[in-house]
Amino acid sequence: MKTQRSTGGSMLAIGEVARRSGVAATALRFYEARGLIGSIRAPSGQRRYPRAVLRRIAYIVFAQRIGYTLGEIIDQLAALPHDRALTDRDWQRLSSGWKRRVEARIAELQLLNIGLDQCIGCGCLSLKRCKLSNPNDLAGRNGPGARRWLGDPPVV
After folding, report:
1. Which residues of the chain have pLDDT under 50?
2. End position of a domain, from candidates 98, 115, 131
């Protein structure tokens, strides 16, 4: 999003946006550099943000929390106008795929929870239990990494 120069009207300073959004000013500048949000420059050179930026920031924060990358978020927000707040319709369109992402994350976390009590086939052989669950690093024959976590069946 392009930064412009203006004398501004009902605009928010970066400190106010940071306070109201809970996002650090450094992160706001980072988001702006990536084109996720935009500001208008006051004659003094200070950034001024339209109030609508607060909803865009909320969207960014929520999307990151459920696992979207900044690249994915940039793609999602690119289809929206930058000059107004997100509407309910915009929100529904953007968040429609979130439920599937959340369900996939829940399944992943459930596997992790189960894996905390079992060998994940990492090939470390550093725990006594690994000698029972992964004798002679049999899981390592399938490749590097946490083989059980990657979906390999238990070693027998």
Report:
1. 2-8
2. 98
